[in-house]
Write a sequence for this structure.
């Protein structure tokens, strides 16, 4: 269960996220859509405790991220944009560090690492430094880190960005397998991904929600029954002026 | 404490999976040797003690400790892994402490590996081992203080070169505060309490007090409280980064 309550973030004069409220329930896979700079990443950074909001808050399984930060972060799996990791470590070392931080010990840690590596298909590379791996494998290392402790809530910032079609498919399959009973938020600007994967789509623009519904229903609202038409109609183009641009990146 | 241990383990092993550990240890030991035996003319003194060896420590640490500390935060910020680290269920103080302790333990290891210098004095005569032990402890405390400064500076920038240069500058202020150059420049005109206050912040005067063989509690507390101060500053810098 994830509750976002009136979340607001300003950078200098630009309001990146503007009074955003949203409740995501277990079993939902919510696709957060929006043009670059709409506030998707900033929202995720605030929900996970990396950025402090200027107003509002988020509760993860009832734990307020601002007050009860550690308890909230324990129930959370977060894949930051670009899936950062420690390049000099191997996936095995990296995951056992994460297990250590997550309080998993001994056999429980080994089992958790093995399950996470099997689910993300990392077995063939587990002893190679992460910095030598391909982009697809690095993304999978990031995903393995997110699901290692079997969290209730998953926040994935562009989990398939930059992957080839096969890798995209594999990542979507993984999300589909783990999604029952979990609360999942993924940000993307791939509209077909939302249609393929998400049970709910939220389109945000300039830090505000402009559409919220089941992907197929939202698509039906567009002039040609397609989600991208609706998307273009509701969101502001980067080509025009006044967009928040890179401020949220 | 678990959180500190987890961060410590990762940070400490990071020195060894990269060439940093090897390069640092070699440079550290060669520099120690060169300054003691060639620059310091250890053999010519005809005395079997390590005064000369320890007298170069503040000046070597001035460059070597910032080199060890510069990557602690700047590298995480550059690579983006800071976002992962700060969204894991770790208290910020534990992350700050774990990183610092890893660097300090590594510096301690480098210091321990200078034991052949001590063996040399044992071979040459009967050194006062109490004085040597006190000096090693003092040197270790001073190294920790340089590292705490370096870690705090590293948290304030994404660039390791800037982190290094700034840390050397700050460390230099603390080191040179008691150097004859500064003291003579001040003592001509400045009121005595000011001269004493500046000198009291000097690593040199606190360290040389320890190398005389007595670990005065005040000297130990000086180094420990400066460490605590800079680690606290480090924590505030990391926390303030959350404001965006």
């Amino acid at each position: 269960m994830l509750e976002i309550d009136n979340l607001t973030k300003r950078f200098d004069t630009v309001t990146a996220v503007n009074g955003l409220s949203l409740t995501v329930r277990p079993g939902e896979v919510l696709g957060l859509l929006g043009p670059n700079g709409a506030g998707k990443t900033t929202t995720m950074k605030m929900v996970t405790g990396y950025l402090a909001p200027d107003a509002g808050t988020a509760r993860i399984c009832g734990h307020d991220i601002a007050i009860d930060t550690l308890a909230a972060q324990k129930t959370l799996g977060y894949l930051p944009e670009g899936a950062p990791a420690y390049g000099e470590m191997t996936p095995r070392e990296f995951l056992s560090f994460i297990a250590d931080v997550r309080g998993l010990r001994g056999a429980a840690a080994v089992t958790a690492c093995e399950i996470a590596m099997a689910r993300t298909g990392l077995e063939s590379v587990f002893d190679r430094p992460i910095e030598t791996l391909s982009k697809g494998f690095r993304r999978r290392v990031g995903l393995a880190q997110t699901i290692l402790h079997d969290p209730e809530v998953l926040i994935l910032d562009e989990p398939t960005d930059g992957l080839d079609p096969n890798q995209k498919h594999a990542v979507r399959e993984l999300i589909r397998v783990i999604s029952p009973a979990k609360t999942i938020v993924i940000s993307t600007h791939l509209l077909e991904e939302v249609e393929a994967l998400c049970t709910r789509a939220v389109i945000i623009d300039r830090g505000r929600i402009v559409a919220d519904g089941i992907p197929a229903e939202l698509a039906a609202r567009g002039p040609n029954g397609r989600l991208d038409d609706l998307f273009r109609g509701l969101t502001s183009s980067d080509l025009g002026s006044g967009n928040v641009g890179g401020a949220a990146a | 404490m678990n959180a500190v241990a987890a961060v410590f383990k990762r940070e400490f092993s990071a020195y060894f999976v990269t060439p940093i550990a090897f390069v640092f240890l070699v440079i550290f030991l060669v520099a120690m040797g060169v300054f003691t035996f060639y620059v310091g003319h250890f053999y010519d003194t005809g005395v079997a003690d390590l005064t000369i060896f320890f007298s170069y420590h503040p000046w070597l640490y001035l460059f070597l400790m910032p080199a060890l500390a510069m990557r602690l935060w700047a590298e995480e910020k550059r690579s983006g892994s800071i976002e992962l680290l700060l969204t894991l269920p770790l208290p910020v103080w534990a992350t700050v402490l774990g990183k610092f302790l890893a660097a300090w333990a590594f510096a301690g290891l480098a210091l321990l590996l200078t034991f052949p210098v001590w063996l040399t004095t044992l071979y040459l005569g009967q050194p006062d081992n109490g004085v040597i032990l006190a000096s090693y402890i003092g040197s270790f405390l001073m190294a920790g203080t340089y590292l705490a400064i370096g870690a705090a500076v590293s948290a304030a920038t994404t660039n390791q070169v800037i982190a290094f240069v700034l840390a050397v500058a700050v460390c230099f202020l603390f080191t040179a505060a008691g150097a004859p150059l500064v003291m003579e420049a001040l003592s001509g005109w400045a009121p005595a309490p000011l001269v004493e206050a500046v000198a009291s912040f000097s690593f040199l005067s606190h360290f040389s007090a320890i190398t005389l063989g007595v670990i005065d509690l005040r000297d130990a507390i000086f180094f420990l409280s400066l460490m605590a101060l800079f680690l606290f500053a480090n924590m505030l810098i990391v926390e303030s980064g959350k404001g965006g």
